[in-house]
Design goal:
heterodimer; A: alpha+beta; Ubiquitin-like (UB roll); Fumarate Reductase Iron-sulfur Protein, Chain B, domain 2; 5-stranded mixed beta sheet; B: 3 helical TM bundles of succinate and fumarate reductases; two-stranded antiparallel sheet; 68% helix
């Protein structure tokens, strides 16, 4: 008989209960199993009613983010062996409304992401015959770090500002806005400014810095926000001192 | 509380937990953040203290002597000691965070973090030595 480890999984069945409860499951312990493997074992062998999101199981899709022992983690990259001898407490991502069991509602994040226009806005459209919009490796290097975001929302679950003020645009959306602002092919900075420069944009951030610590892709959203604050302040001063230079 | 909600397919009953007022207590990183925010109060206190000192100086030797006597009260010494710790905490934490906000590139390469926070520390040292020299030379 293999060694066992206990998972305490948060259950919330809105048609049955008004508040979430915890349910314990005994799963076999394997050194090469991640928390997601244990959840899949539960779903397949112990309790088919458990609901959670997952897809790629290799840290690319960003669907399996959950709270593991109180920390936001990608469950596909979090080994059971880190938590020996257990138990391991698995909860849905913090600060998001819970739809069922470990599934959160991400509508808010999707809306915010779209509001910062995370795509390349070219200055003028070139006809196809003129070829690609070229970029040097140095120009790529400026924003590459921020482009690694997989929208897993762990940074939101780590951000107390988002928890206390759900209006806050949040780490990932701002980091992605910054990714396009810093792209040499993009000319949409002024279009994103209205969204980012409001109180719920960059100025809502108090630089707790936890978003960057939990990021599985080392995007450093906190850094992106502070860098953008610096840029916005410089722009404000420029406009204040030289109003004739304004567009 | 025990009432079982009626299930309606198109109006899911989402559960939204409230964030506790004491969210910052249970984790060192959050507590450190709150202490860093709190340290601003002590920075402001030191500014006010220096302004009061200057005011006493402008009111003549007696006023200044009285101010110095006030400074020597045990309670004030304790308060200033605590304030000094907070101001140091404030300075060090923010200097260490400076490279995250200031990204400088020299010939396309990012300047190492240590150089950016290091230059802040060097500037701090230079200013401190200059102030100490100004006060202590007499």
């Amino acid at each position: 008989m293999a060694d066992m480890i206990t998972l305490e999984v948060m259950r919330y069945r809105p048609e049955q209960e008004t508040e979430p409860t915890f349910q314990g499951y005994e799963v076999p312990f394997h050194a090469d199993w991640v928390v997601l493997d244990a959840l899949n074992y539960i779903k397949d062998r112990l309790d088919g009613s458990l609901s959670y999101r997952w897809s790629c199981r290799m840290g690319v899709c960003g669907s399996c983010g959950m709270m593991v022992n109180g920390e936001p983690q990608l469950t596909c990259a979090t080994f059971l062996s880190q938590y020996l001898p257990g138990p391991i407490r698995v909860e849905p991502l913090r600060y998001f409304p819970i739809m069922r069991d470990l599934v959160i509602d991400m509508t808010d994040f999707m809306g915010k992401l779209q509001s910062v226009k995370p795509w390349i806005i070219p200055g003028e459209e070139k006809p196809l015959s003129q070829g690609e919009y070229l970029q040097t490796p140095e120009e790529l290097d400026v924003y590459k770090q921020f482009s690694m975001c997989i929208n897993c929302m762990l940074c939101y679950a780590a951000c107390p500002v988002y928890g206390l003020d759900p209006q806050f645009i949040g780490p990932a959306a701002i980091a992605l806005a910054q990714r396009y602002n810093m792209d040499s092919r993009d000319h949409g900075t002024s279009q994103r400014l209205d969204m980012l420069s409001q109180h719920e944009g960059i100025w809502g951030c108090t630089f707790v810095g936890e978003c960057s610590k939990v990021c599985p892709k080392e995007v450093d959203p906190a850094g992106a926000i502070q860098q953008y604050k610096l840029t916005a302040t410089k722009e404000w001063f420029k406009a204040f001192l030289m109003p004739w230079g304004a567009k | 509380m025990n009432e079982i909600p009626a299930y309606t397919a198109y109006h899911p009953r989402w559960y939204r937990p409230r964030v506790s007022t004491y969210w910052w207590l249970w984790r060192w990183a959050y507590l450190k953040f709150i202490l860093r925010e709190l340290s601003s109060v002590f920075v402001a206190y030191f500014v006010v203290l220096i302004l009061l000192q200057l005011r006493a100086l402008s009111h003549g030797p007696e006023a200044y002597a009285a101010f110095q006597e006030w400074l020597q009260m045990p309670l004030v010494i304790a308060l200033n000691g605590v304030s000094l710790l907070f101001v140091l905490f404030h300075t060090i934490t923010w200097f260490n965070l400076a490279p995250r906000a200031m990204v400088m590139r020299v010939r396309g390469k990012r300047v190492p973090d240590l150089l950016i926070s290091g230059s802040n520390y060097v500037a701090w040292l230079v200013v401190s030595v200059a102030v100490a020299w100004l006060i202590l030379r007499g």
